[in-house]
Amino acid sequence: MELDDEDIDPPRLSNNELAEGRTSLAFERSRLASDRTTMGYMRTAISLIGFGFSIPALFRVLTEVPGLENAPIERARFLGLFMLVLAVFMLSAAVLQQVVFLRRLARTAGTSFPMSVALFACMAVLALGLFVTVNVLMQIGPA
User: Fold this and answer.
1) Are the beta carbons of 95 and 119 closer than 8 angstroms?
2) Pfam families in the record, alphabetically (predicted)?
3) Cys-Cys with 56: which of 14, 15, 77, 140 at CB 3.0–4.6 Å?
C-alpha cells in the first residue's frame, strides 16, 4: 500500500489564512502586555500605599516613646500623604491608559475583548488608595 502526499503532509494554508492567525495572536499578545503593564503600576502603587499609610502611623507611635516626643510627625505625615497621592495618581493613569488601549485595540481588531482582570484589580486598589488617603487626611483610625 502506497502513501499519498496528502497522508504525509498536512493541508496547506493560504498566506491570508496564516496571516489572520498571526494577527489575532498579535492582538492577544498586545492585550496581555497591556495587562502586565497595568499590574506593574499596581505593584508600585501598593508599595506606595503601604509606606504612605505606615510612615505616619510609625511616627505617631514614636512620639509616645520617652525622649522622642518631638519626632517630626508632620513631616512624616506629609511624606506619607505624598506617597498616597502619588499612588492614587499612578493608579488613575493606569486605569485610564488600560481603558483607552483596550478600546483602541478592540476597534483595530474588529472584535471586543472581555474586561481585564488586571483592570478590575487596579480599580479595587485605586478605591483602597483613595480610602487610605482620606483616612490620613482626616486622621481617622487608630491613634
Assistant:
1) yes
2) DUF202
3) 77
Cell of 35: 495587562
Low-confidence spans in the chain with pLDDT less than 50: 141-143
Dist. CA 15–CA 23, nearest whole Å: 12
116 vs 34: CA distance, rounded Å: 10
In this structure, how many other beta carbons lie within 10 angstroms of the beta carbon of residue 136?
Answer: 21
Task: For cell 504612605, name the residue.
Answer: 52
The predicted structure's pLDDT at residue 33: 92
Q: Residue 72 carries which side chain, given as an amino acid letter?
A: P
Phi-psi category of 134—alpha, beta or left, where left has phi over 0 and alpha has psi -120 to 50? alpha
Q: Distance between CA atoms of 121 and 95, rounded to whole angstroms?
A: 10
Torsion of CA 55, 60, 66, 72, to 10 degrees: 70
d(CA 84, CA 109): 37
DSSP sequence for 4-52: PHHHHSPPPPPHHHHHHHHHHHHHHHHHHHHHHHHHHHHHHHHHHHHHH
How many angstroms separate the CA atoms of 79 and 143, rounded? 18
- Compute the residue count for the chain: 143
